[in-house]
Amino acid sequence: MNNARKSLILTMRRDERYKRLTDALAELDIYRLDFERLETEVFNLHGARSVRSLQADDVAFVDKLTVAETREISSRSRVAEIKMQALRVRLNMVRATKALRDHFLV
C-alpha cells in the first residue's frame, strides 16, 4: 500500500463521523440482522410447504388444501417480513455510507 493511501485511511479512521458510523454499524439494530438465523428460517419455511405434497385423488384433498393454503399464506407473509427487514437494513446502510462518502468528498 502506498504512503498516500495509508495517510488517507488513517485520516478517515480519525474522523469523528467515520467513528460514529462504525460504532453505529456495530451497535444499532437498524444496521444488523442475524442472517444465518433468517436464512435457516426461510429454508425451513420452504421445506415445510405441505402444498407440494398434495394429491388430487386423496379423499381429504379439499381439507388438506385448505390447511396447506393457510400455511402457505402465513409462510409467504413471514418471508415478506424478512425481506422487508433486510431491505430496511440495506437502505439504512446506503444512507449512512452515502452521507459519509459525501462528507469525505466535499
How is this structure best summarized?
The protein is mainly alpha-helical. 77% of the residues lie in helices and 0% in strands. It is rod-shaped and about 75 Å long.
Q: Whole-number radius of gyration?
A: 23 Å
Main sheet characteristics: none
Q: Determine the fraction of residues in helical runs and give it as a percent range.
A: over 70%
Secondary structure: number of strands: 0
What oligomeric state best describes the polypeptide chains here? single chain
Low-pLDDT ranges: none
How many angstroms does the end-to-end distance come to?
24 Å
Principal-axis shape equals: rod-shaped
Q: Write down the overall mean pLDDT.
A: 88
SSE topology string: HHHH
Structural class: mainly alpha
Number of helices: 4
In percent terms, what proportion of residues is strand? under 5%
Write structural notes for this entry.
This protein is mainly alpha-helical. The chain contains four helices and no strands. The longest helix is centred in the last third of the chain and has 45 residues, at 61-105. It is rod-shaped and about 75 Å long.
Layout of strands and helices, then pairs:
Blueprint (H helix, E strand, L loop, with lengths): L2 H12 L1 H12 L7 H13 L13 H45 L1
Helix pairs in contact: 2-4, 3-4
Descriptive keywords:
mainly alpha
